[in-house]
């Protein structure tokens, strides 16, 4: 089956979400194929995290649905969660656990056992360079190492779909380079969605970008197409122009 004919790894269909009077996500639709790294961008309160929580099954849509690896987030939530590696905003939970115990716990709840669990843990520890902190409790780690532990738990079960919220937040330049290189390497066999405020990251790893504002999709295309649309070579400036113009036209402010 070719890339053109196989079904998308992520298929978002008219997702909608309201929080009382706040219409946070409005009729959002898009697909992501295996091999793509999608940058999901927008100002604070634009609906990015809400959309990702609906795709991952952590938040029920008010309308519409999403399919992950062919499984509906509403009808088959456990199969969706099994197919996804999710890196949420913030640090991993269970700060009193050591890194080694935390990864063993994640392996257990992901259904990995015995030699398979040990092999997967060893593999991601090597990939993310966590060897030196395995015996430390998570609460004692730096922000950068906590983020790396978060990445490790997201990829531990080798999921076909990765959804990552600010994956390089708190990392130093060398660590950012390592994580971005890892994302590009994994994208050969996965569909990856990254939410980020760092637009240089879009240039560094993303094959495509979606910009959302006030819960609506404003743009869906390559970073080069975004610059061309906004008639600038600076991707930060292109983002600013597009989102500022959109909010001005809608007559609304960003929503929480």
Per-chain topology:
Blueprint: E1 10-19, E2 22-32, E3 37-41, H1 48-56, E4 63-68, E5 71-72, H2 77-83, E6 84-87, H3 99-109, H4 114-128, H5 143-155, E7 161-165, H6 173-186, E8 191-195, H7 199-205, E9 208-213, E10 216-221, H8 223-230, H9 235-250
Parallel strand pairs: 3-8, 3-9, 6-7, 7-8
Antiparallel strand pairs: 1-2, 1-4, 4-5, 9-10
Helix pairs in contact: 3-4, 4-5, 8-9
Characterization of the model:
The chain has a six-stranded mixed β-sheet with strand order 6-7-8-3-9-10, sandwiched between helices. The chain is built from nine helices and ten strands. The radius of gyration is 18 Å and the shape is globular. With 256 residues, the protein is an alpha/beta fold. The chain has one domain (10-250): Rossmann fold, CATH 3.40.50.300. It has helices at 48-56, 77-83, 99-109, 114-128, 143-155, 173-186, 199-205, 223-230, 235-250; strands at 10-19, 22-32, 37-41, 63-68, 71-72, 84-87, 161-165, 191-195, 208-213, 216-221. Helix 3 (99-109) packs across helix 4, helix 4 crosses helix 5 and helix 8 crosses helix 9. The longest helix is centred in the last third of the chain and has 16 residues, at 235-250.
């Amino acid at each position: 089956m070719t890339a053109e004919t196989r079904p998308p790894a992520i298929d978002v269909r008219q997702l909608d979400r309201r929080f009382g009077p706040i219409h946070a996500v409005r009729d959002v639709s898009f697909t992501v194929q295996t091999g793509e790294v999608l940058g999901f961008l927008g100002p604070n309160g634009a609906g990015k995290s809400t959309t990702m929580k609906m795709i991952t099954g952590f938040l029920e849509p008010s309308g519409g649905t999403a399919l992950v690896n062919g499984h509906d987030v509403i009808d088959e939530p456990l199969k969706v969660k099994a197919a996804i590696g999710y890196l949420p905003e913030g640090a991993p939970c269970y700060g009193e656990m050591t890194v080694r115990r935390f990864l063993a716990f994640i392996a257990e709840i992901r259904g990995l056992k015995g030699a398979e669990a040990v092999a997967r843990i060893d593999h991601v520890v090597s990939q993310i360079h966590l060897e030196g902190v395995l015996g430390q409790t998570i609460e004692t780690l730096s922000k950068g190492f906590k983020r790396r532990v978060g990445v490790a738990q997201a990829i531990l079960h080798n999921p076909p779909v990765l959804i990552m919220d600010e994956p390089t937040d708190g990392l130093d330049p060398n660590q950012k380079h390592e994580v971005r290189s890892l994302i590009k390497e994994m994208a050969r066999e996965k569909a990856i969605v990254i939410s980020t405020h760092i637009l240089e990251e879009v240039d560094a790893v993303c094959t495509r970008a979606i910009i959302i504002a006030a819960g609506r999709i404003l743009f869906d295309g390559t970073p080069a197409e975004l610059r061309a649309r906004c008639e600038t070579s600076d991707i930060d400036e292109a983002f600013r122009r597009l989102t500022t113009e959109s909010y001005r036209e809608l007559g609304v402010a960003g929503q929480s």
